[in-house]
Write a structure and sequence with these properties.
Strand content: 15-25%
Strand order of the largest sheet: 2-1-3-4
Structural class: alpha+beta
Shape: globular
Number of helices: 2
Number of strands: 4
Oligomer: single chain
Largest sheet: 4 strands, antiparallel
Helix content: 25-40%
Radius of gyration: 17 Å
Distance between the termini: 51 Å
């Protein structure tokens, strides 16, 4: 593997990879909410994901089922930190 000079994008990427190996894995989850903002806990518990991409792929497949179950909005969480909210209703 070629050495990367500090200050380069390659150096930053390798540093991030190193930190990812050293730090415990982050957990990505969705918080489920009704239209009035009440938090809903799913019967089977919340799904946990090892990456943001996995969480987003899952919601892309499951949003219609969640909407049918009375969930109106979800919030993506990285551990306890809110990343972004998203309505499950189609744009008008």
């Amino acid at each position: 593997m070629r050495a990367a000079a500090p200050g380069t994008l390659l150096f930053a990427a390798r540093q991030a990879q190193k930190r990812a190996r050293e730090e415990p894995g982050m957990v990505w989850t969705w918080r489920y909410e009704t239209a009035d903002g009440a938090v809903v806990t799913p019967a089977g518990g919340a799904e946990e994901f090892s990456s943001q991409g996995d969480a987003e792929s899952w919601i892309g497949e499951e949003w219609k089922r969640l909407l049918d179950e009375g969930i109106d909005r979800v919030v993506l969480l990285e551990d306890e930190r809110e990343i972004y909210p998203m309505s499950l209703h189609e744009a008008e």
